[in-house]
Design goal:
Layout lengths: L4 E6 L7 H6 L4 H4 L4 E6 L1 H4 L6 H17 L8 E4 L5 H10 L4 H5 L2 H8 L6 H16 L4 E3 L5 H18 L7 E3 L34 H10 L15 H14 L3 H7 L5 H26 L3 H30 L5
Parallel strand pairs: 1-2, 2-3, 4-5
Helix pairs in contact: 4-13, 5-8, 5-14, 8-9, 10-13, 11-13
This protein binds tryptophanyl-5'AMP.
Tryptophanyl-5'AMP binds next to strand 1, helix 1 and helix 8.
């Protein structure tokens, strides 16, 4: 039997954080032996927020370099840039014709984002439909993402089922795949908020390319709790978050970590946490800095990736057009 298909994407809307790494990216290379993996840089999603053109270009190439630095092999997996495969936008349009506006308005990410701006842009509302089209174009079985994408995956499943029941079996129904620990890493400055690459406060996140001194400084400045004890509990969200990060990088489980620091203060936990992060991120950051210099190689990877992705995208899109009653070209 053919290998199952894994699909995921990351927005080039900033420098990736250790939240992106723990929640999604670090699982990508480990899946490539068992599955056919397709990993995308979703630039069309990124422009739903204002982007400086020069910065968008840099972030797009940097995400590609990070994909390679974490060990995704372009001989095994497909790596490409979303805007290079225009079938995504075509399918998104078609899926919009079966999507309720109410359903999009109920998405938590839409509510959050629209509350923060004076004018609600149509692109933000339609964002999840484009994401559904990314996933459905490739007949995806599994989508490795962090917890914040759960609602989007549910919408994707819903749209696939709706299309299938209206026009007959066309799309595979995908499942979400989230890590056991670290599916939602929180801000280091406000444990009620998720860690985000677009946070205005740079102390709220650790970037995947921060140098060692910056990592130590940001961990040191992370907010803690008033109780002064190390416990893994929802009543101590800040410490719980630090333990989650520790667990993800060290491979230890949260209980072991709590036991190891029993009776000790936050200072020592933070000091050692910073070292564990540096050990995990350092080699990736160093590889990234080398790979990003090789513009020719990056171009080769994204061109070949787009060619391979287009083949699969076309196959699904042709089927969709035919089923809906469009005249083939
Ligand atoms: P994006 O670019 O915001 O984030 C990329 C991945 O990182 C995960 N993530 C986190 N995980 C744990 N803790 C956090 N604080 C954290 N912040 C982000 C996200 O869950 C995601 O897996 N809509 C998507 C991009 C997308 C996509 C797709 C994903 C577009 N099309 C198709 C999968 C399949 C997004 O905004 O991710």
């Amino acid at each position: 039997m053919d290998k199952k298909i894994v699909y995921s994407g990351i927005q080039p809307s900033g420098t990736l954080t250790i939240g992106n790494y723990i929640g999604a990216l670090r699982n990508f290379p480990t899946l490539q032996e068992e599955y056919n993996c397709i990993y995308c840089i979703v630039d069309m999603h990124a422009v739903t927020a204002p982007q400086e053109p020069k910065v968008l270009r840099q972030h797009t190439l940097d995400i590609l370099a990070l994909y390679l630095a974490v060990g995704i092999d372009p001989e095994k997996s497909i790596l490409y840039i979303q805007s290079h495969v225009p079938q995504h936008v075509e399918l998104a349009w078609l899926l919009n014709t079966i999507t309720g506006v109410g359903q999009l308005q109920r998405m938590t990410q839409f509510k959050d984002k629209s509350q923060r701006s004076n004018e609600i842009l149509a692109g933000i509302l339609n964002y999840p439909v484009l994401m559904a089209s990314d996933i459905l174009l490739y007949q995806t079985d599994l989508v490795p993402v962090g917890d914040d994408q759960k609602q989007h995956i549910e919408l994707t499943r819903d749209l696939a089922q709706r299309f299938n029941s209206r026009y007959s079996e066309t799309f595979k129904i995908p499942d979400m795949m989230a890590p056991k620990v670290g599916a939602r890493i929180m801000s280091l400055q406000d444990p009620e908020k998720k860690m985000s690459k677009s946070d205005e406060d740079v102390n709220a996140f650790i970037s995947m390319v921060d140098d060692d001194a910056t990592i130590r400084r940001k961990v040191k400045r992370a907010v803690t709790d008033s109780e002064g004890v190390i416990r893994y509990s929802d009543s101590q969200k800040a410490i719980k978050n630090l333990i989650d990060i520790y667990a993800s990088f060290s491979g230890k489980n949260p209980e072991e970590i709590v036991k190891a620091y029993d009776g000790q203060g936050y200072g020592i936990l933070k000091e050692e946490l910073a070292e564990v992060i540096i050990q995990g991120m350092g080699p990736i950051r160093d590889d990234f800095l080398e790979i990003r210099k090789d513009k020719e190689y990056l171009e080769k990877v994204y061109r070949e990736g787009a060619e391979k992705a287009s083949y699969f995208a076309n196959k699904t899109l042709r089927k969709v057009y035919r089923k809906m009653g469009f005249i083939p070209r």
